[in-house]
Design goal:
Layout: H1 5-15, H2 41-44, H3 51-66, H4 71-90, H5 138-150, H6 156-189, H7 193-201
Length: 206
């Protein structure tokens, strides 16, 4: 599997919350006044990952890929790219198959094998549990509510609660998908055919 700097940048951008109202990007990469010299080495070393410096690297990389030479066009295009990135993050539900989840760990384990209990896991960074992660997108938080409801014993009341949380998750997911579709259309309409193709390869457009 090929892992390029483009895919690394977009992966981290999707993982990091995109700061709303961050303003227009600088016209030339490498600016930033008080940032120390040293080329790109400071983006991943030194004091660790700096979201603002990583955002600068992302802007420079995407701008180069899109071949945007005009500063005014870039100032118009970059906020639309950030809007798509934010909408993609919001559309995540966190749905996945966990081999260590209570639903997958049933029956008697083999001899001398200890299966860790998910309930006994320490809290995540910041002292909050994964289910209570306030930084997660709404659809992902709603999915965690569904998972929490699944942990309850099956009764008529718990099944009714589960159905309610599942419906709420689908509402949050569909709203996020609609937001993403609108953001992608706005970005699509602002691009040339070649820029559109580049953004498709980067996963920003369908």
């Amino acid at each position: 599997m090929r892992l390029t700097i483009d895919s690394m940048i977009l992966t981290v951008l999707l993982a990091w919350p995109v700061v709303a109202g961050a303003g227009a990007p600088p016209s030339s990469p490498g600016g930033g006044g008080g940032q120390p010299p040293g080329g790109n080495s400071g983006h991943f070393g030194g004091t660790g990952a700096d979201p603002l410096r990583f955002r600068q690297l992302a802007m420079s990389t995407i701008r180069a890929k899109l071949a945007v030479a005009d500063d005014e066009q870039w100032k118009s295009l970059w906020p639309k790219i950030e809007k798509v990135l934010r909408a993609q993050r919001n559309a995540r539900t966190g749905a996945s198959m966990s081999m260590s989840s209570p639903a997958m760990v049933k029956g008697t384990p083999p001899p001398n094998v200890t299966i860790p209990s998910q309930r006994s896991q320490p809290p995540t960074a910041g002292g909050a549990s994964r289910a209570a992660n306030a930084d997660a997108p709404p659809a992902e938080r709603a999915m965690e509510q569904v998972r929490a409801a699944l942990d309850q014993p099956a009764t008529s009341d718990s099944d009714a609660d589960l159905a309610e949380k599942l419906a709420a998750m689908r509402v949050a997911r569909d709203a996020a998908r609609a937001e993403l579709a609108a953001a992608q259309k706005e970005l699509h309409d602002a691009c040339s055919p070649r820029q559109e193709a580049v953004l498709v390869t980067l996963g920003l457009l369908e």
